[in-house]
Predict the structure.
Amino acid sequence: MPAAGAGRRQAHAHRALAYRLDQHQPITALVQMGSSWPLGEMLPMKRMQKTVAAVARRDATLLSAVSCYETNYPEFARQIVRRAIDWGHVDPNEIVVTGSCTEAISLCLCAVAKPGDTIAIESATYFVLLQLIEALGMKALEIPTHPKTGPSIDALELALSAGLVQAVLLIPNANNPLGCIMPEANKQRLAALVSKHNIPLIEDDVYGDLCFTPERPWPVKAYDTGGNVMLCSSFSKAVSPGARVGYVLAGRYAQEVAVLKMVSSGATSHFFQAVLADFLSGSAYETQVRKMRRALAQRIARMSDAICHAFPQQTTVSEPQGGFVVWVSLPEQVDALALHEQAIAQGVAFMPGQLFSASGKYSNYLRLNCGNAWSPRVEAAIATLGQLVHREADRPSVLRSAA
């Protein structure tokens, strides 16, 4: 783990870089393969428009009602409970509706840890989680993570046994950026481990419904018997990013999370909770996620083929089991940050690997969003990026040393 000062400097660099990424040119000038969002053409916008209109006609008071105290719209909470029936019983009292999955995770961190505490994370992990940890004055401990099976439970057990960690924050289903799914046996062991040490586990399950497995993988929350697991999710990836509705199944920390939500931002829009409740009540959501899984699997396969064709032979591409993104390992001499600057100048955006580590690892990695429909423009962008990688990989070592 980096020293506290070095860790803070690295985290500040993460945040500053993330804010300025892709600001060099107007967004329309870029082939956007950085942010992990689906394009609007993948989302059920027509169905959502009809649902919004129907809810507004049925109960117009939802458009004017404001509450800082009733965070949950009852019908939305019922739909969350109904959707969890496949893997277990959820107590409605542990549901706290939030403005996003990110807000849910932030509230959970505030509820279970304080400035100076250490949070165990995967390596690599979603850079916004690192930003949250840094912004709250906490530290990150990177747990070795296998690109197929996820974080090492043995390494995490050593950290917990040594008292190095006050909370754990993981993405067990379709990790971002690796795309891996933790095996069910590992999830069971993880749930038992945090229960044994009485350590909270914050579980980011935002991609759980977009896994490519025959059956939706269960969350670690399914194996939680002591209320230690806090499952965070939203419907932003598959239904509507603009609705800004997420939630947390907060276990034994529900009261603390609910109070923090109340005092920080009040209740999430009951109107949009009602809209999503309507959307979830029938078959529309299952139809939508099935369609997205097929489309995303195809787009990831096509993107991977294009990368293998355009990039140097030393390149490796992850084989994600869900989500939107691929994690690309470049030749060791390629610096992803320098490559990013060159790519932006050529109108291509991606996320450099250094963002996904608290200690600045993965300098020769990058993450690409595969949510775009395949097109000549995307194909040309991959070819351009491949040319830039070839140029960096072929640069003489003396020049690299001087740089």
Notes: The CA atoms of residues 35 and 369 lie 6 Å apart. Confidence is low (pLDDT under 50) at residues 1-5, 398-403.
